[in-house]
Design goal:
The chain is an all-alpha fold and 71 residues long. It has one domain (3-70): F1FO ATP Synthase. Helix content is 90%, strand content 0%. Helix 1 runs antiparallel to helix 2. The longest helix has 33 residues, at 3-35. Belongs to the ATPase C chain family. Pfam families: ATP-synt_C. Keywords: ATP synthesis, Cell membrane, CF(0), Hydrogen ion transport, Ion transport, Lipid-binding, Membrane, Transmembrane, Transmembrane helix, Transport.
Length: 71
């Protein structure tokens, strides 16, 4: 398998988990806001923080893929 294929697989596998996690985080946040609209600002803040942490995993996989590509 070529180096380009390994890089592609690294990005693909590293992006699946964060995509699922972000979907679940947003779904649960919207569910919480639907149950308690007064807490929307607090829930939204926590949701954005959770999405940022989940997205960091995808960024780490991109960094690993770039290291594999150029080193």
């Amino acid at each position: 398998m070529g180096n380009d294929a390994v890089v592609g697989i690294t990005i693909a596998v590293g992006g699946i988990g964060p995509a699922i996690a972000i979907g679940l985080i947003v779904a649960k946040a919207l569910e919480a806001i639907g149950r308690n609209p007064e807490a929307a600002a607090k829930v939204q803040t926590i949701m954005i923080l959770g999405v940022a942490f989940a997205e960091a995993i995808a960024i780490y996989s991109l960094v690993v893929a770039l290291i594999l590509k150029f080193v």
